[in-house]
Amino acid sequence: MNMDPLIMLEAVGTIAVLSYVWKENAAYRFFEFTAIGLVAAHSIVQTWNNYLKPTVRDRMIGDGEWYLLIPAAIGLLYYTRVMDKKFSWLARYPISISIGYSIGYSLAYSPRPFLKEFRNNFASFGHVNDYIFLLVWLLVVFYFIFTLMKKTKKTLRVTGAITRCLIMIYMGVLFGTSILGKFSRLLGRYQFLLRDWLRLI
Amino acid sequence: MLRREVPAVLTTVMAIFVFLSAMLFPLEEMKILARTDSLLQFMGNMALFLGGINLFRLHSRNIKKKREYWPFSLWLLAVFVFFTVLGIVKGNNDPLYKGLYDALIVPVNASMHSISAFFLCSAAFKAFRIKNLDSIVLMISAVWVMLASVPIGEIISPNVGIVKDWLLAVPGSAVARAMANGLFLAGFAATLRIFLGLERRHLGQ
Amino acid sequence: MDLMLLAAEAEAAVPKWGIFVDVEGAISGLLTTLILTGLTYYWITAARAGRNIPSIRRLPGLDAITEAVGRATEMGRPVMLANRRDGLGDVETFALWGYLSHAATLAAQYDTRFINLTGSHLVLAVNEAVIQQAYLEAGRPDAFNQDDCRYFPSNQWPWSSHCAGIIMRERPAALLWVGSWSGEASILPEAGSQIEAIQIAAVTTTGQLPFFIASCDYVLMSGEVYAASAYLSKEPVMTGTIVAEDCAKLLLMAIAVLGALVEIARPASQWMTNLLKF
Asked: Which pLDDT value is given to residue C8?
């Protein structure tokens, strides 16, 4: 058996987490709560060390970019959510700015990759598979039409079941492909326990 | 007005500013957006303690009210405080910080990922017993793919693999692309609803 | 050589139509944005003017939320809504707030505990406000419990291990999975089905959908996820935005068929493809 304390800790952790399959228990809970405490601390430490500290030290104090105080002050308004209820509405300011930024970005940029993908539907045509592809594509796009008009209702009644079947076949393909990958992960963990820790194989 | 209208206007103005910066001013495009992006990142990072405050508030109340499993909350807070202080004082490249972090996180990451194999089996088993057609079609297709990926599939018939590849490349890709295209249009409509001020849930309305 | 490269760069930097960025799809992308905005504006105006606009078909997954909250109330167990990795500006988060508001309002009306899990501390700031508002609108502001709006960092497996633990300890009778998901989708819904919760998923990640389909009672996929907010509001103006989206789908189908016909008639002409590249 490998007595390295870090390997021992990892082995105990592995067994504790795998025990969830049997039942949620104290050993599992111990590692679960530890992991949350750890990653919560890590996200603060990383932002502090890799981003906030260098920005304040190098850009604000070093390069004199004092205008950074404005986004800093707006960012601090987030904390009004956890302060007195009277001021919590102030948090809407940084939230609105962030959301506005994302919306503008998405209105400008998101159609480009969409068009690139869409035009592949008819970029080349001739093989029987191209016809099948387009037919399936049309059926699925039509399936996700929500507006009820007489014609859509009738057509959906005919094509709906076939389309749903096609979608499920594709879902099955994805399911089957990934299940094998998951098993190789599991075997990897067994290998760690039996070879790296217990040295049985 | 300061509580609702101004934030709503801010959302729209910011969206228009970014949209125009991206569409026009070809030479300045990257500069303007990169600077805005960096300012917004800085703004967002100022809230780094917000999550920690939520975590601290919940678990300290668990301890105070002696709720079920409160000793685990105490342990979580101890780990959280210890690692935050250690990481800020010594830096995240400190050997003790890195060593403990890896030893505790690796088993959780690797083992959680690997237990999904058990859960998928149980999901598959249940899906076969379930009455609805969706799950049955899904599972038949999944079993076909699994057969095609192991040697026994080849023994049964070489066509097992050919059919699987065709399913993935032709109808499968068509379904995936149609769903992605639909997702884009619907997502775009959702974005427009906020842009046009029809949806203001983020402003508490 | 350097001069040639510089010349090529200078040529590439010439804006399209004099003002637009010279990248593939800049004009066609802009036109797409304008057409979609125009369609949405048209149908919103039509709805505001009181004209008859088509209704939207039922989305069984959404109707099931009421049933699930009702069942949770009968069993005296909580309702839980989880979203791990979507950030403040992600479009999935806009949809999330629709579900959150609806489910929290129902839970408040039925006097059932409502738990929300998120992986983003910025999204948490909005989620709390949305839930609080839902309780206020239901006439039960005092029932809002801040301790049930929970954040833990979105690191995939630690988040999932805590979520799986909470599922087993709190035993919610109704579970809602909203937004984009990755590998944890093969564990969490199955954990939910082990405690026999009614599960409803509104998932935007196509690759993870099969796991939700195998374990959940109802799954909303693709465009259905975003149509929810409009569907739930039942307001004609919001319905107008869905009608506009459907018009765009029909337009897209027509363009695809036209593009294919052009390719059949004049193979390798790439006429429609080049048009969409502009």
From this structure: 46
Closest to A94 (Cα-Cα) out of A111, A71, A114, A116: A71
ipTM: 0.90
Partner C, chain A 36-75, Cβ-Cβ below 8 Å: 36, 38-40, 42-43
Query: Which residue of B24, B146, B175 is the best one to mutate when testing the A interface, meaning the one whose CB has the most A CBs within 10 A?
Result: B175
Domain for residue B9, yes or no? yes
Q: Is residue B157 part of a domain?
A: yes
B205 assigned to some structural domain: no
Nearest to A185 among B113, B137, B146 (CB): B113
Long-range contacts of C213-216 (CB under 8 A, 24+ apart): C213/A168, C213/A171, C213/B134, C213/B135, C213/B138, C214/A175, C214/B120, C214/B123, C214/B124, C214/B126, C214/B127, C214/B135, C214/B138, C214/B139, C214/C189, C214/C190, C215/B123, C215/B126, C215/C189, C215/C190, C216/C177, C216/C189, C216/C192
> Which candidate from B46, B53, B77 shows the least CB-CB separation from A76?
B46
pLDDT at residue B131 in the model = 59
pLDDT level of residue C19 (50, 70, 90 thresholds): low
Query: Does C8 lie at the interface with A, CB-CB under 8 angstroms?
Result: no
Q: Select the CATH number that applies to the domain covering C60-232 from these four: 3.40.50, 1.10.150, 3.40.190, 1.25.40.
A: 3.40.50
Q: Is B79 part of a structural domain of the chain?
A: no
Return the pLDDT at C1.
39
Contact criterion met (CB < 8 Å) for B26 and C21: yes
Domain locations in chain A?
Answer: 1-64, 67-109
Sign, CA dihedral C26-C28-C34-C40, equals negative
Number of domains in chain B: 2
Write out the residue range of the structural domain in which residue B14 sits. Answer: 1-46
- Residues A31-70 pLDDT 10s: 999 999 999 999 999 999 999 999 999 999 999 889 999 9
pLDDT digits (tens, 9 = 90+) for C193-245: 999 999 999 999 999 999 999 889 999 998 999 988 778 877 888 889 999 99
- What is the average pLDDT value for chain B, to the nearest integer? 88
Nearest-CA distance from C266 to chain B in Å? Answer: 23
Q: Does B189 touch chain C (CB under 8 A)?
A: yes
A50, A89, A176 ranked by CB distance to B146: nearest: A176
C91 touches A: beta carbon within 8 Å: yes
| Contact by Cβ (8 Å): C82, C177 | yes
C62-120 residue pLDDT tens = 889 999 999 999 999 999 999 999 999 899 999 999 999 999 999 999 999 999 999 99
